[in-house]
């Protein structure tokens, strides 16, 4: 069990086990298409970077007020959801191929950041 983390859902969307399920589904998806040969850390990192760029492209020319208004309208939120999903899928697949538990790594990083950036009172 992770330090300071009880075994409970992360949020209303899913549980910590959903990352394992997603990882498994991505493995099956790649295997069914014989894509494992292409899923090298370098290739996956480049694809992840490209998808992050597509996410940024949805927002780059909008100021914060326009983004807030556009999110309320819906279509931008849908496009952001698609791009965020692409980023997440490549990140989970990259972590899997590299043997990294991305949730454990994220919690460890938060702990390091808490030390590096203590709250100011």
Structural class: mainly alpha
Mean model confidence by pLDDT: 89
Report how far apart the termini are.
31 Å
Overall radius of gyration: 17 Å
Question: Order of helices and strands, N to C?
Answer: HHHHH
Write down how many β-strands occur, each being a DSSP E stretch of 2 or more residues.
0
- Proportion of residues in β-strands: under 5%
Biggest sheet record: none
Helix content: 55-70%
- Top-tier CATH class of the domain at 39-107: Mainly Alpha
CATH architectural arrangement of the domain at 39-107: Orthogonal Bundle
Number of helix segments? 5
State the low-pLDDT regions, or none. Answer: 1-13
- Output the CATH topology of the domain at 39-107: Helix Hairpins
Shape: globular
Query: What's the CATH H-level superfamily name of the domain at 39-107?
Result: MazG-like
Q: Can you describe what's shown?
A:
By secondary structure, the chain is mainly α. It has a domain at 39-107: MazG-like (Helix Hairpins). Helix content is 67%, strand content 0%. The chain is built from 5 helices and no strands. Helix 1 (17-32) packs across helix 4 (75-97) and helix 2 (41-57) packs antiparallel against helix 4 (75-97). It starts with 16 loop residues before the first helix and ends in a 5-residue tail after the last helix. Residues 1-13 have low confidence and may be disordered.
